[in-house]
Design a protein that fits this description.
Radius of gyration: 36 Å
Order of helices and strands: HHEHEEHEEHEHEEHEEHEEEE
Structural class: alpha+beta
Helix content: 25-40%
Strand content: 25-35%
Largest sheet: 4 strands, antiparallel
CATH topology of one domain: Phage tail protein beta-alpha-beta fold
Oligomer: single chain
Number of helices: 8
CATH architecture of one domain: 3-Layer(bab) Sandwich
Length: 307
């Protein structure tokens, strides 16, 4: 009886134990791979590739952008410079009815009547003119720390992190994998790519919004037909307050005088001192003054008016 109970207990234990699949001879156990979180740039790209209907009737550009921002969870920024061209994003000027389009394609159609473009940066989606978008993308601040890194890997990582168009000439083949050692801190993306190319004995030229990396000889041949390096956007001057703060100059239309900076609700502005007047030099007297002709005979000289 006791032996029967022991056998029944053993059967119950083995039945309750989880099934174990024997490993193949010489095979190591598969490592557990943790789920890899997508980078913000990858998440933004995925959101912009989502397909949906886009229907806006008599909406303002701000309303459309706000709706797309809520749906995609992607930060959207409009270049403040475009307001200088008369754009009013609060006017109900957007009417589109699109079926089954990617968000990025639908947004491009929305922006086309305003002659605006959109593109990804590391800060999110940026809307500006074509030139403004190119400058924004290629002048993003980056840092480089390469120590024997393959050139192609370093450049592709910069492009992936910033959303900029950096293209490596496929004809380079093994030359694209030249080891580069370079350390840069807080420089424009375009500068970083050009310097990395220089260290790898390659060349980079800008063709519109694309940085094209090729051999130094090909880059030199392309240079006459290429676009020059992007230029930084000039910033408005700022002046220090007496207390150490900074603010931008506020022009006063229709008023001639020293500019006023700062100010606001309940805060007086600060008047900049006027520039001292520079005395003007009188024109020198001619070396040979013309002779004064006497009045003709029989004429009288009019008397001077009384003071």
């Amino acid at each position: 009886m006791r032996s029967i109970l022991c056998r029944m207990f053993a059967v119950a234990v083995f039945a309750a134990a989880p099934a174990i699949t024997p490993l193949a001879s010489g095979a190591a156990p598969a490592p557990v791979v943790p789920a890899k979180n997508a980078s913000p740039m990858d998440a933004a790209r995925k959101a912009l590739d989502e397909v949906a209907d886009m229907n806006y009737q008599g909406k303002s550009l701000n309303e459309v952008i706000g709706d797309l921002k809520d749906k995609s969870k992607v930060e959207v920024t409009i270049d403040p410079m475009v307001y200088q061209f008369g754009l009013d994003p609060n006017q109900p000027t957007v009417t589109v009815a699109l079926k089954g389009v990617k968000m990025k394609d639908g947004l491009r159609q929305v922006l086309a009547p305003f002659n605006l473009k959109c593109g990804l940066t590391k800060d999110g989606l940026y809307i500006s003119t074509e030139e403004g978008l190119t400058t924004k993308q290629l002048r993003q601040r980056v840092s480089v720390d390469c120590d024997g890194t393959a050139f192609a890997a370093a450049v592709k990582q910069l492009a992936a992190d910033t959303g900029a168009n950096v293209v490596i000439d496929p004809r380079l083949k093994d030359k694209a994998n030249a080891a580069v050692t370079l350390k840069l801190e807080d420089v424009p993306l375009e500068t970083a790519v050009r310097l990395l190319a220089e260290v790898a004995d390659l060349g980079a030229v800008r063709m519109s919004n694309v940085l094209f990396v090729t051999t130094a000889d090909r880059a030199e041949k392309l240079r006459p037909s290429s676009d020059g390096p992007t230029q930084p956007t000039p910033g408005n001057p700022v002046f220090p307050f007496p207390n150490g703060g900074f603010d931008r100059a506020i022009p006063l239309p229709g008023i001639i005088g020293p500019p006023v900076i700062g100010g606001g609700v309940g805060v007086p502005g600060v008047v900049l001192p006027a520039m001292p007047d520079v005395p003007q030099k009188a024109d020198p007297a001619p070396a040979n003054p013309a002779p004064v002709q006497a009045p003709p005979a029989g004429t009288t000289t009019p008397a001077a008016p009384p003071k």
